[in-house]
Each structure stands twice: as structure tokens, then as C-alpha cells.
Design brief:
By secondary structure, the protein is α/β, with parallel strands linked by helices. The chain contains twelve helices and six strands.
Length: 269
């Protein structure tokens, strides 16, 4: 795709916003520099907004609506985009994941994809009625290559104890998965801490989420049935960072987490 080419406006509401931004800019005969000055950002940021790499926020939408007298068009589109499911969420998420420098994740029920064994992933995908199991497993495991590269991202994981207890794939598969977690938790760029069931009520019970840091900034991802939602608005991302810290406040230290994983492995013997 050319850097200035907008995404297919039919693919999602965010794509429609990107397409509309470029359309309205060109209709007014404005350059990317001119729009950058209007939005107080670089021309490269305008290009990312127009090709869907970045998302227009509420303040930027309001500035455009006022400057271009749109009748609130961009503000309304951004509002709708933030309410609904983005069908392109996974592609966008994996692109951010692949070039991240730091990832923080809380998982409440399952072992995170980047830490899964092939057998565990296969059992999950089979239960989800995936029709091309081998292809899907290979794609998931391929994502883990970022953890083995020369300069891997920092990965901080908070994992609910519940995820250690669900026997995905049976006892043998789960024992192998827990052993894999112990191996990964010893790596210097991976910090794995368990939120014990004894922690009781905590912010993690509201659901799983991820926070990814890339060169342009930070983005959050909220999981949902049959999809998810990417969060780019700074204030909302900050709220997820605070939530991660609050969950971390009731999580076990790294060494105690490893001890708990070993305990659950022994229970599978």
C-alpha cells in the first residue's frame, strides 16, 4: 500500500474515518503539512491517520469539525468507531505487537498467545471450532518469534491463577504448558507474575487486556467475544496502565509465582 493511500472505507469505521480525512483534505486543496499544523502534529502523523496506522482522537476530530465546518462529522464518526467492534482489530494488533518495545498484559482465563505451546494452542483452537488448525497454530506460534530476536521487547505478564487450573488439552498438555511458562519466566526480558485466587476481588476480574508500546506511543487492546477493540486515546490508555498496576499490587512476586506454577504442575502428575 502506498503510504498516502487510505484503507478500504468499507472495512471498518476507523477506515472510513481515515478515508474521509484524506477526502476532505484533498477537496480543500490542503497539504499534509497544512493539516499537521491544524492538528499540531507532524506531516508523518497525518499520513498515518490517513492510511489507518493511527486513529483520530476526539480533540483532533473537534478541531477538524470547527476548522472545516463539517457539522460535527468527524466527532460523530470517532464516537461511533469507539463504540463498536473493529473487524480489522487483529491485523492492526499483530502489526503493533511485532514492532513493540514493551508489552504489558493481564490474562484472566487463558495462557497468553505469546506464551502458549503448540499443543495448548491447538486444543484452544479446536475447542473454538477452527477449521484450519495447523495453519492457525503455526500463525500463532510464529508471533512468538519476537521474543527470540536479538533485541526482544520487554514482556510483563500478570496471569490469574485460574489460567493454571483449566486443563486445556488434558493433563499432559497442561503439564507441558506450565513447564514452558517456568522456562520463559527465567528469561531476562519476560516478567511473569501470578494473581492468586486468594487475592479476591481485584480489577482483573473485569477482563483481559494488553498495553503495547511502539515508537509512536502506546496503544491498548481490550479482548471481547469474537473480537476486540484497539484503544489509542491517551487518557484511556493511561487508565489501562493504572489498572495493570492495581492488579500488579495483588500479584505474587516472580519467585513466589514460579513456586505456585510448580505446585500446579505437581498436581498434574
Amino acid at each position: 500500500m502506498n503510504i498516502n493511500e487510505p484503507p478500504d472505507p468499507r472495512s471498518s469505521m476507523w477506515a472510513w474515518i481515515a478515508y474521509s480525512l484524506r477526502f476532505h483534505r484533498m477537496q480543500r486543496g490542503l497539504t499534509g503539512d497544512a493539516v499537521g499544523k491544524l492538528l499540531n502534529c507532524a506531516r508523518s502523523s497525518v499520513s498515518r491517520l490517513e492510511n489507518g496506522e493511527a486513529k483520530l482522537d476526539e480533540k483532533q476530530a473537534a478541531v477538524l469539525d470547527e476548522a472545516w465546518n463539517t457539522g460535527g462529522l468527524f466527532s460523530i464518526m470517532v464516537w461511533y468507531a469507539r463504540q463498536g467492534h473493529d473487524p480489522m482489530w487483529f491485523k492492526s494488533f499483530t502489526e503493533f505487537e511485532a514492532r513493540s518495545s514493551l508489552m504489558k498484559q493481564y490474562s484472566g482465563q487463558l495462557i497468553p498467545a505469546l506464551l502458549q505451546t503448540p499443543a495448548y494452542a491447538s486444543a484452544l483452537l479446536l475447542a473454538g471450532r477452527e477449521t484450519e488448525i495447523d495453519k492457525a497454530v503455526n500463525a500463532r506460534i510464529a508471533r512468538q518469534a519476537i521474543l527470540d530476536q536479538d533485541n526482544p521487547p520487554e514482556l510483563w505478564v500478570l496471569l490469574a491463577e485460574t489460567a493454571l487450573q483449566v486443563r486445556v488439552g488434558g493433563k499432559d498438555v497442561m503439564r507441558e504448558q506450565l513447564a514452558h511458562l517456568l522456562k520463559l519466566s527465567a528469561l531476562p526480558h519476560i516478567t511473569l507474575r501470578i494473581v492468586p485466587n486468594t487475592a479476591g476481588a481485584n480489577p482483573g476480574l473485569d477482563g483481559s487486556f494488553k498495553i503495547i508500546k511502539v515508537r509512536e506511543g502506546e496503544i491498548a487492546f481490550v479482548e471481547a467475544p469474537n473480537g476486540g477493540r484497539l484503544v489509542a486515546e491517551v487518557a484511556e490508555v493511561e487508565s489501562f496502565k493504572l489498572r495493570f498496576d492495581r492488579i500488579g499490587a495483588v500479584a505474587l512476586p516472580v519467585d513466589s509465582s514460579q513456586t505456585l506454577i510448580k505446585k500446579h504442575m505437581e498436581a498434574l502428575s
